[in-house]
Amino acid sequence: MAASCVRTVGSFLGKCGNSCSSINSVTSQLSRQVLRRQICVSSALHRKNQSNRTPPKFTAEFIEQQVEEFNIGKRHLANMMGEDPENFTQEDIDRSIAYLFPSGLFEKRALPVMKHPDEIFPKQKAVQWGEDGRPFHFLFYTGKQSYYSVMHELYNKIQNLEKYQDRLRAKGLFSQDVKQISLGSSRWLTKEEVEGVLVETITDHNYNRLIQLMERLLSMPYCALEEEFVMRYRQQLETQSRKQTVPPLQRDERGVAFSTAEGRRKTSNSTVVLRDCGSGKVSINGQESIRYFPVLQDREQLMFPLQFMDMLGRFDLECTVSGGGRSSQAGSLRLAISRALLSFLSEGEMENMRQVTVFRSVAAGLEGCSKLYAAVIGRFSVSQLMVLSAWRSCRWLTGQLFRPLALLKKLHLDKSFHIV
Amino acid sequence: MALHRLSFRLRQMILQERHVRTLRTSGCVQQQEAVAESEPEPFSVFRTQESDPACHSEKHVGQFYTVPPAHVRIVFPYGLPRRYIEQVKTFNEACLMVRQPALEVISYLKKTDFSKPALRYVFYGVRGSGKSLSLCHTVHFCYTQGWLVLHIPDALRWVKDCTELLPSSYNTSRFDQPLQAVEWLRNFRTTNEQFLSKIKIKQRYVWTKREFTEEGSLLGELVDQGISRVKSSSDVVGALMKELRLQSGQPESNFRLAVAVNSVNALWGKSNIMKEDRSAVDPEELTLIHNLRKLMNNDWTGGAIITTVSQTGSVLIPKSAYLPQELLGKKGFDTMDPFVPVSVPNYSEKEFESCYLYYMDRHWLQHPQSLTEDGKKELIFLSNRNPTMLERICSSL
Questions:
Q1: How far off is chain B from A279, nearest CA to CA, in Å?
Q2: Which residues form the signal peptide (chain A) (predicted)?
Q3: HSE-up of residue B35 (Cα within 13 Å, Cβ side)
Q4: In chain A, where the domains are located
């Protein structure tokens, strides 16, 4: 699938030849069928049958050849760009390709790409049996050898751990409070991701059993010994606030604390100076908030970060904003205010705000929900957040982009939000 | 303010302690007295019982007073801003807030020397800060004092969107606006009923070949003439203004003239109306405006001129302009100069508090969040204490 979509620069001709021949073989098969049955088949049906066929099998020699071509092509590219061929990294390759093949397309998958063949061609199983026809792996005849081997390995580890614990108990060195694996910032791989790791399809039942067994391993006190094995099947979650730098709290000559922060939304840029011991005055580009934002919705956007932390009458806001339209200016100001507010908050409050802002960034990725994230204030559990971040890759969501309330209902989160 | 959460009687006790002016009994029995005698009339922080504007003073700043229903019908037939009229209908009472700018002008009016030329007062402020209602408060004061009130509630209405424009019979270069003139005459008649039969006109006016008003006839007849004969109504308005201007300040006349014009910057601004050949009409070419401009000059005595300048609704003026000089333009400023500018700011904290309590008392704020302290802070932030904004946020959808 990936092979037919993406055109790599290094192996241009070879792949073209490959795909053409495979298409030709399919059409010739079909035409033979047509002659036999004398049924008129339209070209649309031809295309449909082609999309249902299995992905092409690549032999190991073919992949090796691709790797060689890639390496040679990399050196050629480095020479073309006038750089050192020895130290030409993947980032340099991407940069050069973007320079040589400028494109105005927005779809990332449609841009020209030159990557190592391992990243392009789907992982395929090597030949499973030797020349005499005997399979290498002892679980070959289960049909899902990798999956069952993982399960066996896992169960072995559990048994070993139990034996270890028994030995410790016998010696009297058993203790409950041993260092545990920290699982807070990661999640289990989804079924599709596990399939990618094992390079074979598994059913839902299989996946659930795998997770159950993993949980059983984790329930044992000494599971930290198998941490590396467990982490192979967990995905780290990127958290926003780790990247969020808190602006420093400055003091002016009268001793009043203030902080400055910037924010961006679409094409607007804004800067906000938040002064403490104020009366809730807001000035935007020198004008009053009522004059600059006659629409109520924009003023509500400014209000939300302060209202969330119950600090409405405490600060004076001095804002400057430029670019974009009315809504995007309000959005950028809101972001700038929440960033500036971070320097006045404690850790726990910052976590609270982060949860809301993570949702906002996830939802902002679903562009149609922009009004939703502007309107929703909610506090909700981390597990719900993780579900949301996993949904990012789901395709059905694109259809849901313009129905934010229905989306919330689907995710069973409609009760946890206070829609304003 | 946590007062609304306290029980009724407790509230009386605390309020009685706070408002020294309402205590009429001795100190030791104030509690029982309060409970006993204030049952029929609920007192509150945001309301005052004083409905006579002459008695309003600094003590009443921030409090609402009720305009007696009879006065509402007479003094303000169409003098109030549109949204305020809807509020009056909803709440079934016309409550105006006593604010510092109006009090200032009222105090000046009380001390007017009627032998000197009329002083001009101009209310100015940002959009929605309460200029029109301050003017209405002052007009109510003038009415209760027995002055003759010439109230033009919106000069912009004469300068915009006029459908019927007749060439003036008196001066062919000018244009008449019969509908507006008739409407205004009707309202003038309602407001100043009592003066119509007392004042006599001093000049003979000929309207057409067969119609004329003799010298010495009553003002009421002049007004009726204008209402019945629509074609000459604009000229009647002009004649009326001229008569009143000449007569006020004379020793034999027994009335004071108060000219109250809302959005006076319309007189010297641009107009929306177009002639048949699609060229814009200069306000000077409109009879009503021409005559009103004559009134604005301070060459007459025995009264006062109270005006507001507003950007809202004015033609081709930037939204950021709110100072009198910007809005009046050079010509207008030269005509109005010297005048007393009175600034009308947004609500102070006390006034905002008062307005908030009033809305709560009227059960206008229905959302449970709005009854909390946090809700009040939200309202302060969103409306920036601007009266119109607050009213719009709290209003129905």
A1: 10
A2: none
A3: 7
A4: 60-120, 141-236, 250-356
Residue A194 has what pLDDT?
93
Q: Evaluate whether A191 touches A393 at the Cβ level (below 8 Å).
A: no
The one-letter amino acid at A393: S
Q: What is the pLDDT of residue A14?
A: 45
Quote the CA–CA distance of B168 and B235 in Å, as a whole number. 8
Average pLDDT, chain B: 81
* pLDDT bracket for residue A65 (50, 70, 90): very high
DSSP β-bridge partners for residue B206: B212
Q: Which of A6-10, A31-35, A59-63, B258-262 has the lowest mean pLDDT?
A: A6-10
Q: Report the CATH number of the A250-356 domain.
A: 3.30.230.10
pLDDT at B253: 76
Name the helix (H) or strand (E) containing B342. strand B340-343
How far apart CA A183 and CA A190 sit, in angstroms, is 16
- Dist. CA B162–CA B167, nearest whole Å: 13
Non-local (6+) Cβ contacts of A243 within 8 A are none
Q: Which pLDDT value is given to residue A389?
A: 45
Contact in structure between B281 and B273 (CB atoms under 8 Å):
yes
| Residue A9 φ then ψ, to 5° | -75, -40
Average pLDDT over residues A350-355: 70
| pLDDT at residue A365 is higher than 60 | no
Residues 358-387, chain B, touching A (beta carbon < 8 A): 374, 377-378, 380-384, 386
Cα distances from A82 to residues A92, A97, A100, in angstroms, run 12, 14, 13
Given an 8 Å threshold on Cβ–Cβ distance, is A312 in contact with B377? Answer: yes
3-state secondary structure B261-322: ECCHHHCCCCCCCECCCCCECCHHHEHHHHHHHHHHCCCCECEEEEEECCCCCCCCCCCCCC
| CB within 8 Å: A290 and B381 | no
Extract the runs of DSSP E, i.e. beta strands, from B115-208.
119-124, 148-152, 166-167, 175-176, 205-206
Residue A350: pLDDT above 90? no
- Are the CB atoms for A237 and A389 separated by under 8 Å? yes
- Average pLDDT of span B36-49: 60
Contacts of A397 (CB under 8 A, 6+ apart): A366, A391, A407
User: Looking at residues A51-69, what average pLDDT do you find?
Assistant: 82
- Contact in structure between B112 and B119 (CB atoms under 8 Å): yes
Backbone phi and psi for residue A319, each to the nearest 5 degrees, phi listed first: -115, 145
Q: Which band of pLDDT confidence, cut at 50, 70 and 90, is reported for residue A318?
A: very high
Interface of B with A in 146-185 (CB under 8 A): none
Cβ pair B328, B265 in contact under 8 A: yes
d(CA A238, CA A242) in angstroms, rounded, equals: 8
Determine the pLDDT at residue A193. Answer: 92
Three-state SS at A8: strand
CB environment B222-242: b (16+ within 10 A), e (fewer) = bbbbbbebbebbbbbbbbbbb
Chosen for mutation from B126, B319, B352, B384 (greatest number of chain A CBs closer than 10 Å) is B384
ipTM exceeds 0.85, yes or no: no
- Is B37 in CB contact (< 8 Å) with chain A? no
Residue type, B344: V
Residue A67 scores a pLDDT above 80: yes
A165 pLDDT more than 50 = yes
pTM of the model: 0.63
A224 near A179, Cβ under 8 Å? yes
Tell me whether A289 touches chain B (CB under 8 Å).
yes
DSSP state of B175: E
